[in-house]
What we know:
mainly alpha
Amino acid sequence: MMPWPTVADLVAVAVALWFLFAPRFDELVNPLTGALAGFVVLSSLWRIWKRHGSAS
């Protein structure tokens, strides 16, 4: 079973990607929000990798 922080990181990645690619948010996505969503995705993936990649 995955720990709760990993689940929260996966939810954050899913929400950020949904925000970037959902058609109804097209007019809201600009370079700043795109960069923010990219930061959320990359930082969440980095935390997951540090949590599970360094354990083995």
